[in-house]
Please model this.
Amino acid sequence: MLLAIETSCDETSAAIVHQGQVLSTVVSSQIRLHTEYGGVVPELATREHLRNLQPVVRSALSQAGIEIHQLEVLAATRGPGLPAALMAGFTVARSMAFALKRPLLGIHHHEAHLYSPWMDPATGRSCFDQWVPNVSLIVSGGHTLLVHVPREMELVVLGSTLDDAAGECFDKVAKLLALPYPGGPVLDQLAEQGNPAAYDFPRSMLRDSSDDFSFSGLKTSVRYFLAARPGLADDPAVLRDLCASVRAAIVEVLVSKTLKAARRLGVTCITASGGVTCNRALRRDLTAACSRRSIQLRLAAPAYCTDNAAMVGILAERQWQRGAVSMALDEEPLPGWTLDSLRT
Ligand code: KG4
Ligand code: ZN
Model:
């Protein structure tokens, strides 16, 4: 019986995992709190984590129908993330491990994302029996990563963003268009009724031979475009076309570079996770591109795209079953922990 805690950014989450089954997942999102500032305020996020951690852990235990003394292993996201936010969740897990005399596992947040496409929130089950070598796209507000996973627990980071993350680009462009925070989902919704070919925004590094991404040029291009045409986005039809055109530029780069990497490496499976994987156009276009090339696609379910402790718990349990040892209780979170440094 394992309790996992996730507090790397603005979601306070706890989950109970037992023999590959997620018995409960509780997520308390802080989106409303940060809306007024147009982005995550680390100080506020930490205060909110501290306030939410106890009730979130308690409801994860009660929803799973277990008592605290039944916990056998504790796990928490160790990094990367906001330093004080990570410290909040990690300290709770560490204190529980100390008090209950149980082992503690510190989990890499991005490695946990790699597990979410194999998990089903409806049943709580995972399907690792179907696991195959894959190329995995992790796209959220804080990260854009392309990872080759030749064997479970082995990974090679192929590329990442050189500047803004894909979700950050969605959010910053949405802000330029005066849409509410977080802009990604709102822009996505408006784009559904817009014309993606109405405006031609840059597809940065599309033809580049590397697997890296860059999204700040697109954001700057939208800024200059709007500055030269004051009031243009006030017209609702134009706004929808702008949203659709920006979304098309981001999604084309993500889809094309992911498929190119999969083809080059000869893998027959692509997976995707992270908040931006909720994007409708990304889901549609990845589905269409993979089906044309007979590549199996596993998209994380929307409930597991965004940050959650279930993916942390599932990874922690698999590590534990493979002989991972407990951390020393004086070890600290690693806010700048890179996936590269994990293992190759
Ligand atoms: O994984 P996540 O919840 O948090 C981290 O950043 O770690 O991802 C949040 C990001 C935000 O940038 C948000 O705007 C973006 O995911 N996002 C979307 C959509 N839903 C969430 N971006 C585009 N379209 C969406 N439907
Ligand atoms: Zn994340």
About this structure: The longest strand covers residues 21-29. The first helix runs from residue 31 to 35.
